[in-house]
């Protein structure tokens, strides 16, 4: 048994020597030719996909948003649920056209609101009649619905009472009401309250 182990170690060492000798000979051959081999480590490629969301996804983004997500998340969750789509040049072009259309619509709505605000502000004061009490006091108060009814009677315009902001009116006098027609457009209207 001992002789077998020594034979194995001798044969493996001779094999190693013959192998190393071959390597040394190879490197000398390369050095004679003055050629060097450079081995670069390759980085693991990031597997991401550029997608567009078809609907709002919690903790990810809103509808129409462009995102880079991992390929597995897209393949295993977003695609089967129908929540996202891979971005293509055709899709990008369609998105750009849709965004331009939406921007034009927003601008048109804002312009209409500005024109309506100009109409409200040039009318002058809206007059509200209330039954009078002692001094300047009136019975009840003037509400947003009262102002909406007066605007409809005088200008034939439908206004939602939720956009009307009135101070508390319990006396006769002149007050300023605000009509929030658009997030960026607010019309200031004068309201004259008098007792009859």
Which helices and strands occur, and which strands form pairs?
Layout: H1 2-33, E1 48-53, E2 66-70, H2 71-81, E3 84-86, H3 89-122, E4 125-130, E5 137-142, H4 144-155, E6 164-165, E7 169-171, E8 173-182, E9 185-195
Parallel strand pairs: 4-9
Antiparallel strand pairs: 1-2, 1-3, 5-7, 6-8, 8-9
Strand order of the largest sheet: 4-9-8-6
Residue windows where pLDDT falls under 50 for at least 5 positions: 3-13, 22-30
Mean pLDDT: 82
Number of strand segments: 9
Would you tell me the structural class of the helices and strands?
alpha+beta
Rg is: 41 Å
Biggest β-sheet: count, sense, barrel?
4 strands, mixed
Q: Would you list the SSEs in sequence order as H and E?
A: HEEHEHEEHEEEE
Helix content: 40-55%
Assign an overall shape: rod-shaped
- End-to-end Cα distance, whole Å, is 128 Å
Number of helices: 4
Our estimate of the beta-strand percent is 25-35%
GO molecular function: rRNA binding; structural constituent of ribosome
Protein name: Large ribosomal subunit protein bL9c
Domain Ribosomal protein L9: 61-88
Keywords: Chloroplast, Coiled coil, Plastid, Ribonucleoprotein, Ribosomal protein, RNA-binding, rRNA-binding, Transit peptide
């Amino acid at each position: 048994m001992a002789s077998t182990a020594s034979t194995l170690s001798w044969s493996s060492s001779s094999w190693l020597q013959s192998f190393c000798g071959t390597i040394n000979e190879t490197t000398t051959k390369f050095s004679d030719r003055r050629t060097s081999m450079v081995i670069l480590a390759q980085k693991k490629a990031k597997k991401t996909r550029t997608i567009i969301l078809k609907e709002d996804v919690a903790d990810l983004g809103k509808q129409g948003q462009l995102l880079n997500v991992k390929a597995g998340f897209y393949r295993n969750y977003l695609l089967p649920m129908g929540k996202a789509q891979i971005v293509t040049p055709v899709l990008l072009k369609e998105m750009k056209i849709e965004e331009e259309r939406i921007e034009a619509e927003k601008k048109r709505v804002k312009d209409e609101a500005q024109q309506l605000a100009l109409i409200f502000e040039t009318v002058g004061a809206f007059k509200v009649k209330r039954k009078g009490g002692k001094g300047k006091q009136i019975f009840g108060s003037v509400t947003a619905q009262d102002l909406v009814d007066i605007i409809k009677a005088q200008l034939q315009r439908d206004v939602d009472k939720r956009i009307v902001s009135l101070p508390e009116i319990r006396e006769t006098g002149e007050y300023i009401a605000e009509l929030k027609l658009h997030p960026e457009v607010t019309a200031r209207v004068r309201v004259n309250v008098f007792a009859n």
